[in-house]
Amino acid sequence: MKKLLALLLALVMVFALAACGEPATEETTPAGEETTPAGEETTPAGETTGFIGISMPTQSLERWNRDGNFLKEQFEAAGYQAELVYSDNEVDQQVSDIQNLIAQGVDLLVISAIDGAALNTVMDEAAANDIEVIAYDRLIMNDNVNYYVSFDNYSVGTLQGEFLVEALDLENTTADDPKYIEFTAGDPADNNAPFFFNGAMDVLKPYLESGVLVCRSEQTEFDVVATEQWNTDTALDRAQNILASYYSGGERLDAWLCSNDSTALGVTQAVTSDYAGDNTVIITGQDGDVANLRNIVDGLQAMTVYKAVANEADATLDIAKAILAGEPVDQALIDAAGWDFEANLDTETYTTSDTGHAATSILLVPETVTPDNYEEVLVEPGYYTVDGDGYLVAVG
Ligand code: GAL
């Protein structure tokens, strides 16, 4: 019996020793794991933490799809967590989408507002949660918004106006043989829309006043020519009405100022199908939407103002990094950023209420695109490629 017990004890000890061997090998794993935290340290501080909420207006307009993708990609590539939401051009939807992002614990919000004046409550909620907001492309009218990244909106309009002065040869035109123009502007809820319109109008007004340029419909005020939600069909309907009311006899029409591409698309459709005259109507736009670039190649739209949204996203990322690191957003940041595009600091123009509080604004520089320069402005820098039919395809 003793022998049996001794044997059993010996067996137990053998098993126990064998079992002890396993933890010995396990010890190599924690040792191996130590390399992971060490590896993380090589990532610059501040880049591995941070949750960014990105709220875009709608997917129904081409540019916002590009903006959303670029922003999400840039933030994720820099090590942030990013959540991207679109709000279908519905203001209430955007408010609740932003509230959801706040509830999810975002550290920073990047918002392109559907209606810049309708986000007051939710901006107050963001501030109460110590969340800074970057107004992206469109300003938000609330004093809790301290940062704005956009293109120089007024100069978008200036470029359109200057293009028309040149294309219509207004300098050599006289009031006894004037040029004729109509106007279509953007969404009155979008803070950018009056900037675009005023930029163009400030260039064209002297010619309207001297009678060198004539608007037969006399619809030259922003409120009258605005297009809710930048909607293509709304722009189309209004253009058809104007053509039926003032040009049904084939009266001369030389140009149609459109503030952006989605409205230009509607106006081009109306002119193509309903204009009874034989003038080429020079139509302007903004954004470089693929459908409009197709019209530019086909000679149906004369120009667009291009805003490189990939660069806008780049600038937003660097500003977000500074904000999250508690560093100032100032000229030194721009100088040190090493961007391969031009951007200017403006601390005065974009006031968020009548208190005079102005968002610190980083404004990129837009460019005119025509049939003569799209290779150089869009294709060579890699924003677009040309397909087999000679049309432009957006990259990214
Ligand atoms: C503006 C934006 C333009 C244009 C328009 C329509 O706010 O700056 O680029 O896309 O909205 O969405």
Q: Overview of this structure, please?
A:
The chain is an alpha/beta fold and 396 residues long. It has 2 domains: 51-151 and 308-364, Rossmann fold, CATH 3.40.50; 153-286, Response regulator (Rossmann fold), CATH 3.40.50.2300. Helix content is 45%, strand content 15%. Helix 4 links the parallel strand 1 and strand 2 (81-86). The radius of gyration is 29 Å and the shape is globular. 44% of the residues are buried. Bound molecules: beta-D-galactopyranose.
Number of domains: 2
Kindly state the percentage of residues in helix.
40-55%
What summary fits the major beta sheet? 7 strands, mixed
The CATH homologous superfamily of the largest domain is termed: Response regulator
Quaternary structure: single chain
Q: CA-to-CA gap between the ends?
A: 81 Å
Portion in beta strands: 15-25%
What is the residue-mean pLDDT, rounded to a whole number?
90
Architecture blueprint of SSEs:
Blueprint: H1 2-26, H2 28-33, H3 35-40, E1 51-56, H4 62-77, E2 81-86, H5 91-103, E3 108-111, H6 120-128, E4 132-136, E5 147-151, H7 153-167, E6 179-184, H8 192-210, E7 213-214, H9 222-225, H10 232-246, E8 255-258, H11 261-274, E9 282-283, H12 290-297, E10 304-306, H13 309-324, H14 331-337, E11 343-346, E12 360-364, E13 367-369, H15 374-379, E14 384-386, E15 392-394
Parallel strand pairs: 1-2, 1-3, 3-4, 4-5, 5-12, 6-7, 6-8, 8-9
Antiparallel strand pairs: 10-13, 11-12, 14-15
Helix pairs in contact: 4-13, 5-6, 7-8, 10-11
The protein binds beta-D-galactopyranose.
Main location: other
Keywords: Signal
GO molecular function, one term: carbohydrate binding
